[in-house]
């Protein structure tokens, strides 16, 4: 198969105060998110001047990937499009068509399976191609990468760096707390062809990061950034509740490592550096937050390697044991039941 472009596919975020509500309406259209939750999340964005860091992080990643391609003879022009905010994917796909692109490889900024993190990006591609119509390039998504060394090693180094900021005399009572975005339990159950892929992959990432960073410490995998109406069950425990349980058990210090994410975007900054850090302080726990890969050279090299896997049929780099595939089976990670908007 010949490919003639690379596409960075991401979530999108507002770039000023006036963007915040329209962005949030794009994210939540038809998903039954209560109005109070929207108002609360809008406040998180306004706290940062209405600017999400995710767009600059995408620009930085795109620049780094372009340089990495150049240095390794990967001759593909690089494009960027988002699900929820400008540059919107359908505008990017129209530009690709105008530039004569016929077949592109897309890197989505999530490592995991599941509807929100994988299937929905395939749907974004389908919708954007349909909107562009005849002449839209073919676009396929690169595979999930939860156990790639280019994802695991930057997380592991970040955990080590965060640990170095805590009191070594209390290491025996220090704990690793891995976090990922909570999702509805029903979405977790239908993730992957056999169900449970989001949580199973996160468990594997946590094990790999733990083994590489601090095998002497105990660890847990917990959830952050819950959304949705209260009567719908989402993955638990929430990181804040979990910190209270740990403090009760005699844990003195925590390193919180957001392995569910590729960059320090708003949900990492607000929900961890603000909320969870406050919770830890109230509980008297020492607290350090580990960084995400961002533009770590190993992560950037991973993107290039995922492309080369597909260009050259090169072997897959995997540290774990879960299966991988290039194109998701059509029946995995189905869309949750839609609410009326
Ligand atoms: C699994 C997952 C990831 C990780 C995979 C991936 O990266 O794709 C992720 C990432 C992100 N989520 C983000 C922001 C938001 N997510 C929301 C709502 C939701 N997230 C969900 C899941 C996930 N979300 C779900 C099931 C909902 C309920 C509504 C729905 O079913 O879609 C809402 C609505 C308000 C709220 O209720 O929180 C917002 C504003 C941002 C941007 C941050 C920035 O601006 O820097 C990013 C990277
Ligand atoms: Fe989200």
Automatic annotation (TrEMBL):
CDD domains: Ferrochelatase_C, Ferrochelatase_N. GO terms for molecular function: ferrochelatase activity; metal ion binding. It comes from the Bacteria. Keywords: Cytoplasm, Heme biosynthesis, Iron, Lyase, Metal-binding, Porphyrin biosynthesis. The keyword Disulfide bond does not apply. Fe(2+) binds at residues 181, 267. It is found in: Cytoplasm. Pathway: Porphyrin-containing compound metabolism; protoheme biosynthesis. This is Coproporphyrin III ferrochelatase. It comes from Spirilliplanes yamanashiensis.
């Amino acid at each position: 198969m010949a490919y003639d472009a690379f596409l960075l596919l991401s979530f999108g975020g507002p770039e000023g105060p006036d963007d915040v509500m329209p962005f949030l309406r794009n994210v939540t259209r038809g998903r039954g998110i209560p109005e109070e939750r929207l108002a609360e999340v809008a406040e998180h964005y306004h706290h940062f001047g209405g600017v999400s860091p995710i767009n600059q992080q995408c620009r930085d990643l795109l620049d780094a990937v372009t340089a990495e391609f150049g240095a390794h003879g990967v001759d593909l022009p690089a494009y960027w499009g988002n699900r929820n905010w400008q540059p919107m994917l359908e505008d990017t796909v129209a530009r690709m068509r105008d530039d004569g692109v016929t077949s592109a490889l897309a890197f989505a900024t999530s490592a995991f399976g599941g509807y929100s993190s994988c299937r929905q990006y395939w749907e974004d591609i389908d919708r954007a191609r349909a909107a562009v119509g005849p002449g839209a390039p073919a676009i396929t998504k690169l595979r999930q990468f939860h156990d790639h060394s280019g994802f695991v090693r930057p997380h592991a180094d970040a955990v080590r760096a965060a640990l170095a900021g805590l009191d070594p005399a209390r290491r025996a009572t220090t704990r690793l707390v891995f976090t990922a975005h909570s999702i509805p339990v029903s979405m977790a159950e239908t993730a992957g062809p056999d169900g449970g892929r989001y949580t199973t992959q996160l468990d594997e990432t946590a094990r790999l990061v733990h083994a590489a960073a601090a095998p002497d410490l105990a660890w847990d995998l917990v959830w952050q950034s819950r959304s949705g109406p209260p009567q719908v069950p989402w993955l638990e425990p929430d990181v804040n509740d979990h910190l209270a349980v740990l403090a009760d058990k005699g844990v003195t210090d925590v390193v919180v490592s957001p392995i569910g994410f590729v960059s320090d975007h708003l949900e990492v900054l607000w929900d961890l550096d603000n909320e969870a850090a406050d919770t830890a302080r109230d509980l008297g726990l020492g607290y350090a937050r580990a960084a995400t890969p961002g533009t770590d050279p190993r992560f950037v090299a991973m993107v290039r390697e995922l492309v080369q896997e597909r260009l050259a049929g090169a072997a897959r780099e995997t540290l774990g044991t879960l299966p991988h595939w290039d194109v998701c089976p059509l029946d995995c990670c189905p869309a949750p039941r839609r609410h009326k908007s």
